[in-house]
Amino acid sequence: MSLVKTKGFKYFKNLVIGLGASVVLMGALFKLESWPYASEMLITGLSIEAIIFAFLGIIGPEPDYYWDKLYPGLNDYHANLTPLTAGPQDGIDMGTPIHGDVIENQLGGMLTELQSMSKNLSSLKALQEVDFSGTSDQLKTMNNFYTKLNEAMADLNDSIDDTKVYKDQLSVLNKNLSGLNGVYGGMLNAIATSFPK
Predict the structure, then answer these.
(1) Domain for residue 123, yes or no?
(2) What is the C-alpha separation between 154 and 142, in angstroms, rounded?
(3) What's the pLDDT at 177?
(4) Domain carrying residue 157
(5) N or C: which end of the chain has fewer CB within 10 A?
(6) Is residue 34 one of the residues assigned to a domain?
(7) pLDDT for the residue 157
(8) Mean pLDDT estimate for the chain
(9) How far is residue 48's CA from residue 15's CA, in Å, rounded to a whole number?
(10) Are 69 and 55 in contact (CB under 8 A)?
(11) Burial of 13 from C-beta contacts in 10 A (0-12 / 13-18 / 19+)
């Protein structure tokens, strides 16, 4: 592998680009504020950036994805492409061979997941289309219902308490009446014995 494709070189390249850009920006700030050494900072920063951009133009861009490992010759327009499905081909060692059934199973699993996601998104869309405009009124109505129900329960509790008091008073009245009946009966007996027929 060449030096340009190593992680260390990529890190160094990004570091130099970032530092060069920061020197240019600081030089521009110094220039706008008319601070000393502004011209020197701009010259240094722009020179570094010019060298970096020239170098980047010479080495060329890196591929975003390495599809040519799966399809050798992908970069060649006239290549006859055959995917590596049964191991190494044309003397290229891929390490672990890539089998078609493994790829097919993985793609099948991805397809199942995509179908599941599609169903979930359809459900979300249906939920989005539900009209919740009357929900506020329904909530107010339910709130009123529960308020009235609580008031009725409180009244019922009060009437139960009143009923208990009334029952206790009836028991006392009943005892008093029994006592009065005894007294009245005694009076009738006394009258009857005092005035014989």
Answers:
(1) no
(2) 18
(3) 84
(4) 133-197
(5) C
(6) yes
(7) 81
(8) 78
(9) 12
(10) no
(11) middle
